[in-house]
Amino acid sequence: MRIPCPYCGPRDSSEFSYLGDAAPTRPDPAAPGAEDAFFDYVYLRDNPAGPLEELWFHASGCRQWLKVLRDTRTHLISGAVFARPKAEVAR
């Protein structure tokens, strides 16, 4: 599987570390019910079949986090962008 890094160009997936679904956001630890929210955040994840935006870290390249749109049924990658806005990306 080749991942199109916006900085380095197309690279083999072995250069990347996979984190998972890009949608979940970390709960506020000071909010009421934080313990239940953290349990859900850590342990309860969907496993959709089809297009999914995922987080990948280019460990053997530019060392940037990417959001990669990948179809979980076919592993077809439709594109990749930096996970942070370009102005925040340190090169």
TrEMBL record:
InterPro entries found in the cross-reference section: SoxD, SoxD_sf
Domain of life: Bacteria
UniProt-listed Pfam families: SoxD
Official protein name in the record: Sarcosine oxidase subunit delta
